[in-house]
Design a protein that fits this description.
By secondary structure, this protein is mainly beta. The protein has 1 helix and 20 strands. The protein starts with 5 loop residues before the first helix and ends with a strand. It comes from Altericroceibacterium endophyticum. InterPro entries: Spore_coat_component, Spore_coat_U/FanG.
Length: 327
């Protein structure tokens, strides 16, 4: 073909092919994916505590963790407690039912001596095998306790801890971190729940000690007290039954050994000359008992013991009185 240098054409074509091949090769190097970086991710799957009708309860933080590292790993998983729901504070979380609230707290141990706090998180050591996307699940227990000195109206009480955090604890630290290098956790909300029933408590006082008295004494008296605490609006009635079973509160003292004397006594309310105090009572009818209505605080009821005569064998006399609280 006149006017064309075929050798030059072949060289030019080959050079262009070499450039194209080089460009494709370079492009392949630039587009090749980088090696995946190691990573650990943990999240909670369930969290909460239900006291039921008890003063204490056990809850748990259920979790799962994923590992993309190509080697076995061990780390300290931690859980930091979040912000309590209103009207609670970090120092005193509170459960709420309508306008009523109940103080409680969370602890790391069953004895409730270690409070779960920002600088005292839940912790658990987790070990995971080397695998791409391997998963480990587990559960961390915690313990709750209601404030025993509070008595509130019956109902279902609930509360939350917002923005609680599952994360990782660096060596030598007490601060739970949601992100630590290639380790990542997450925030979550946790709920608490308790059921309060019409539960009253009665405390029997110290023995009614009439002291040391001569045989010629008459109309001897002594006293003690009974304390009752009931939820607000809860009516109650207290009945007293001496060991001889008298429904009218007319008991008998017993001596020691072979002494068969049984000095009589009478239980009374209000004063030494007040009404007899027996056990014919309930919340619908006071009868010969003593009645009241709870308001969440302690109510004290005085018990008086009277003895008309002490013409009996010298001895130490005593009796046991049963206290029955109806509510």
């Amino acid at each position: 073909m006149p006017g064309i240098d075929r050798s030059c054409l072949r060289s030019s074509l080959c050079w262009n092919c070499a450039l194209l091949a080089l460009a494709l090769c370079c492009g392949a190097v630039l587009l090749w994916p980088d090696r995946a970086k190691a990573n650990v991710y943990c999240e909670q799957t369930d969290a909460g505590i239900d006291f039921g009708t008890s003063q204490s309860g056990t809850g748990s933080i259920d979790f799962r963790c994923y590992n993309w590292e190509q080697q076995p790993i061990t780390f300290t998983l931690c859980v930091a407690l979040g912000t309590p729901s209103w009207p609670g504070t970090s120092a005193e979380p509170r459960l709420r039912s309508g306008s009523n609230s109940l103080a409680y707290n969370m602890h790391l141990n069953p004895a409730a001596t270690s409070v779960w706090a920002p600088n005292n998180p839940l912790v658990q050591v987790v070990s995971m095998p080397a695998a791409n996307g391997s998963m480990v699940t587990g559960s961390i227990p915690f313990y709750g306790r209601l404030e025993s000195s509070e008595t509130v109206a019956p109902g279902t009480y609930t509360g939350s801890f917002y923005n609680s955090q599952i994360g990782f604890l660096p060596n030598g630290s007490t601060v739970c971190l949601q992100r630590m290098g290639r380790y990542t956790g997450r925030n979550f909300n946790m709920t608490a729940r308790a059921t309060v029933t019409n539960n009253c408590i009665v405390y029997a006082g110290s023995p009614a000690d009439l002291g040391a008295v001569p045989r010629t004494a008459a109309n001897v008296s002594g006293s003690t007290a009974i304390t009752v605490r009931c939820p607000s609006g809860t009516p109650y009635a207290i009945g007293l039954t001496p060991s001889n079973g008298s429904h009218a509160g007319a008991g008998q003292l017993s001596g020691t050994g072979a002494n068969m004397d049984r000095p009589p006594y009478q239980l009374r309310s209000g004063s030494i000359a007040g009404p007899v105090w027996g056990d014919l009572t309930d919340v619908s009818s006071t009868g010969n008992g003593v009645a009241g209505t709870g308001d969440g605080t302690h109510h004290t009821h005085d018990v008086f013991v009277t003895m008309p005569s002490l013409q009996y064998e010298p001895d130490n006399y005593s009796d046991l009185v049963l206290v029955t609280l109806h509510f």
